[in-house]
Amino acid sequence: MKVKRETFDAATASLRQGVNLVEASAGTGKTFAIAMLVLRFVTEFGFPLQNILVVTFTKAATEELKGRIRARLASARDLLAGDGGRPAGSTLGVRPTGSTFGVCPTENLLGVQGTEKDGTDSALDSWRAGLATSGIAERLARQRLEMALLDMDLAAVFTIHGFCQRMLQEQALESGQLFDFELTTDTSRLRAQVIHDYWRRNFYTLSPLHCALITEKYATPDKLYKSVEGTGKRCARIEPPAPTVAEALTLFDKSLSRLSDWWQNNAATLHPLLQEAVNEGKFKQDLQNNFSGWWQQVDDFLMGCSLQLPTNLERLSAAVIREELHGNKFRSSKEKSGEEKKQEFIAAWPLADQEIADFLQARQGVAMAFRMGLVRELSTGLAQTLRRQNLLSFDDLISQLAKALVSEQGPALRQILSKRYQAALIDEFQDTDDAQYSIFFTLFAGSSHYLYLIGDPKQAIYTFRGADIYSYFKARDQADFHLGLEKNYRSHPALVEAINRLFQLREDAFATGELSYTPVLPAKSADDGQLLDSGKNAVMVYCQLDAAQDADDGRWSTDQATERFVSYVVSETTRLLHPDAPIMLTATDEPAIPLAPRDIAVLVRNHKQAGHFQTALVRAGIPAVMASQQSVFTTGECHDLFLLMQALCAPGNTTILKTALTSAWFGMNGLELYALWQDSEQVDLWLTRFHGYHLLWQERGFLAMMTSLLTTEKILLNLA
User: Fold this and answer.
1) How far apart are CA 286 and CA 290, in angstroms?
2) What are phi and psi of 250, to 5 degrees?
3) Which residue of 42, 161, 360, 529 has the fewest C-beta atoms within 10 A of its own C-beta?
């Protein structure tokens, strides 16, 4: 049942028992709301801090949440003590390094949520007023806050995996787990073992023909696994149910037998008809030129003389052989269309429509059965392998707790865990899958608990990070209260308005009627932060490439288009940062600040594109860094350092030394290096210098050696 959405203010809203679904777009203050809810549960309800469960999805987020909760509790305590309640660590009016907002730093321009320009905290003021309304004495609230701050180390702030692990360990008897199970962070080795065991059991006993059915698509166990990777978590079942490998092979053998019987009865009749059409040039080029070889391949296979699966076997069906007929030979006329002429031409041919359809379906079914067998093996075999070694993976933590809650011991386990926590706040709920949601709903959905599910439904479409949009729909339908954080405290009002307008251009912005876009309101005005270009508001610039002049269809090649876009971005960035006419960042009561390189971000599709932009920007004299998941060991800088370290470890090896000197660290071009190699005295000098660095490393350590090398060889100057 869907309930009406209400605007939610964490400082003043009524806190109600049951399932509260809080929809919060980016920048609307999810973390702020969670900290405020913890404050209110502690002061207004007297809940001990360890009885308030807070769940998020990364360890970094848990540390941030603990810090924000501690700061909120401390600010509230200070407010009640008469110290003003300024947020701990607030830096109003200070420009933080590296903050970005499009190209405008927002943390300093738009301020801290709930904090006014005079330093007062409106959220805490509203909360304080609510204490009197609720009949809570400020002295009692302060005592509860003091106790909560003392108990901060006991705060129940977990990742979802940390929560499940704690519950399984502490309630091992009720959950059916061994007391001393270990958590493994990498199951790749055990998974590979399960995959290869499955391959050996099911593949090695097959006939050569049956093997060919598998290896034509999946030549190795790893390739077979790649075809089903990730399905275990996202797939509940397959419809219609896939047959076993043995059943699929039996169906294949029967279909092959029927097709072979058809061939023996009809091949002699069909061959001259096809040959005559080939002689008249009625087929397209591929069949026209390779008819004899193709026919022989099919004949050898269907007569049992060869185990090689023929290509284009579907040509024996009417639909495919009709497509192989050349259109120029069957032009449309007033009386008949080209397709009608083709159909009339092959009408008398003995073709194997049903037999071919059955054979191809059975052939595909074998591969599907083999894949689905691996899916089943991974879902059961991997879990069994882990349990034999007393190990649990991250996924197992969730699945085991979810199963334990509905097992025979489930009622006892549910009672114990439900009593432990009086309120549960689930952060980033949009990344929750069905198993995770079932845990929270089973434990805390009753009328005696306060369950708050806080997340952004628009982000629930991202399955690559574990989100499940249908779990979100399920939670929304089961929620007792539907709430929303309506104001964006992070972005400029113009950006908020533009995003609203973009997503409201069509009703089905997310391609489903189940998910709609709710406009967000800006929390600040334009005066709180603006970009000024020559004294006027800077506007969004949209650009696109004109048709390519050297292409008939006007299309640009990928390389050409990338080069043009990179050139444009570098040119525009240079203009934005030009010292004679800089773009200015302004805010009320704040001095105008010129735009800096750190205020500009370039978003690209992949790491390779990022490298192109970074190189071009650096060449233009614009400092640029690249954020990616690439290992530092794969970078060019690491490669150059590796070459240098090799030369320092073997200072007498001329070949290794020459290789090291080719790096950009030493600033020599090809001609200079060639001249050096021809001068034995210069080579000896370099060998002597590297031998000295080697000795310095051994005597005084790496840092002293590297400092000397960087200074003596002017490395930083060469790299500038």
Assistant:
1) 6
2) -65, -45
3) 360
